[in-house]
Design a protein that fits this description.
Largest sheet: 3 strands, antiparallel
Strand order of the largest sheet: 3-6-7
Structural class: alpha+beta
Radius of gyration: 21 Å
Helix content: 40-55%
Strand content: 15-25%
Distance between the termini: 49 Å
Order of helices and strands: HHHHEEHEEEEEHHHHHEEHEEH
Length: 310
């Protein structure tokens, strides 16, 4: 009972603190998002992820202000942004859909498109034309296996930026992903429960989308920088002036509710983040911990929307 009262008091404390922060939010937010909505979305996320209440309060507010500065909703459902409890800090992580949204809202980008190329498609690169590639899907018969993925961003001034990645390059990213490695480690009966297995093409397209975002307007590049830092095991904080800074930190054992150390697998479940792609897998941490510690992998598909708008 006391614990429930304490949690309720913590929730009310954060709600009051966000109310006090409304003027600062209004100063940072773009027109499409109000401080009232951001506070409501943030509180819903906090109530759905109680571990956030156990983190340093200033880092929680800083993460929410980062959402305000970029105009992204941290609901964990739309894939725009996430508030992740990591050690004793709250880490703000923009999702790949957030990157696309930032690009479209920048006023410079008119569209972003990502597609897969199959071995029987016609695909060629010619840097003398604009855009410098041709992709003609095979419309009759089998298209074969996917061999590469491309992404094209068109700017309103007529310019563009594009890139492509071969399957070998995509697989190198996948194999370096902490999420995929965790799914492999806890595979049952040789079955890997990962969106990299069940939704490979969508994950591959998302990877090339993220790569191209780094060359888009400043707000998108900054968001991509945050994801890169998180992938490298670093933390990103906001300064009092609103700038983002990367903070190096050594990993420390996570503490459980009794003050003891959690297992490595349990600790990772608090912030299950896919390297390079920015994939964040959230869900019932207690249930995931129970499954992992009993040797049964949880299914990340239940918590991940890995589709790229195409």
């Amino acid at each position: 009972m006391n614990q429930q009262v304490t949690k309720k008091e913590q929730v009310n404390s954060v709600r009051n603190l966000l109310e006090q922060m409304r003027p600062q939010m209004n100063a940072a937010l773009p027109k499409h998002l109000t401080s009232e909505r951001l506070a409501r979305v943030a509180m819903t996320t906090i109530q759905n992820t109680p571990k956030l209440l156990d983190c340093d309060r200033s880092s929680l507010i800083s993460a929410i202000m980062s959402c305000a500065q970029l105009g992204l909703e941290p609901d964990g459902l739309l894939g725009q942004a996430y508030l992740i409890p990591f050690k004793n800090k709250v880490q703000f992580i923009p999702g790949y859909k957030g990157l696309i949204d930032l690009a479209r809202r920048s006023g410079d980008v008119s569209s972003i498109l990502a597609k897969e190329v199959y071995e029987n498609d016609e695909f060629s690169v010619d840097y003398s034309q604009e855009p410098p590639f041709v992709h003609k899907p095979c419309l009759k018969g089998e298209r074969g296996e996917a061999i590469l993925f491309w992404c094209l961003a068109k700017f309103k001034d007529g310019g563009y930026h594009w890139d492509y990645m071969t399957v070998e390059e995509i697989n190198a990213v996948r194999d370096g992903s902490s999420g995929y490695q965790s799914a492999k480690r806890f595979a049952k009966g040789g079955v890997i429960n990962s969106p990299w297995v069940s939704h490979y093409n969508e994950m591959a397209k998302k990877t090339v989308v993220r790569r191209i975002c780094k060359m888009l307007p400043m707000s998108v590049a900054r968001a991509a920088m945050i994801e890169d830092a998180v992938d490298a095991g670093k933390r990103v904080d906001r300064t009092e002036t609103g700038d983002f800074i990367v903070v190096d930190h050594e990993p420390t054992p996570a503490q459980d509710d009794d003050g003891g150390n959690q297992t490595a697998a349990s600790s990772k479940l608090e912030a299950f983040v896919d390297n390079e792609t920015g994939e964040v897998i959230e869900g019932n941490v207690d249930e995931e911990r129970r499954q992992v510690e009993s040797g049964v992998a949880f299914d990340p598909e239940d918590a991940v929307d890995a589709k790229v708008a195409s």
